[in-house]
Amino acid sequence: MLQLAGEVGLLVTEHAIGRSSANQSALADSLAAIMRTLIQAANEAGVTLEAAAVKNLSKIFDRWPHERLYPPALDVSADPEEQLPRELYVDVFERSVRGQTYVFQRCNGVNIGDRLTDNAMTADDYRFHDVFHYAYVAVLTWSPVIRALFHLKRKSDPKIDEAQDGARATLIEEGVATWIFGQAVALDFFADVKPGELPFDMLKHVRQFVAGYEAEQIPLWLWEEAILQGYAAFRFLREHRRGRLHIDIHNRRLTIETLP
Q1: Which residues, at least 6 apart from 124, have a Cβ–Cβ distance to it below 8 Å?
Q2: Measured in whole angstroms, how far is the alpha carbon of residue 174 from the centre of its chain?
């Protein structure tokens, strides 16, 4: 590896002083030397260049695919009554109770979940953070938090119920949402971030969070879609303080509209 680094360093030096561009033959010799050293390093490591290239391409397409083909829903094989809802509307709004402002959620005319505040010394509107969980449902078809909220744990399979839908998985999801929120604060809640522009390291950290759970198999580009859609809805709620969420698993979309 040191020899390979030396050959590459030599080529960079030659290019910096203009020798490589002026002498194409010398450039070809340098590139050939690098390839020979690269092959030697790969052989010593027991890795073929073909296998390394395939693995690298897999990482690239996991993040920036040629074609965005949505994988099947994670609960596609579950009993229908234990599947996440394929389409759902949830109203999110603020209401004052005894001088304290809370966020409430309502689905089909019934209040759901706990009333929320920011739970922080400084107001940051984290009270609207459940929108991130709904984005995970719509785009990723994954959310232990929403499964618990709607009593949709996959109890017909005790192992999945305990490992994938249990308290630990719920805490993992809350941790993902909280950690991403911390990153988003410094980036204006991703207001100017376009698809393909979320930091690669951020998405890799998210995958590390969910390692060992079914969400680990979700491609990074799909995580990005869920995050950006969730934060688009979050920014809407920050501005309007109320809205109607449309969770649409069929089209992998979370949208929000004005709540009358």
Answers
A1: 118, 185
A2: 13
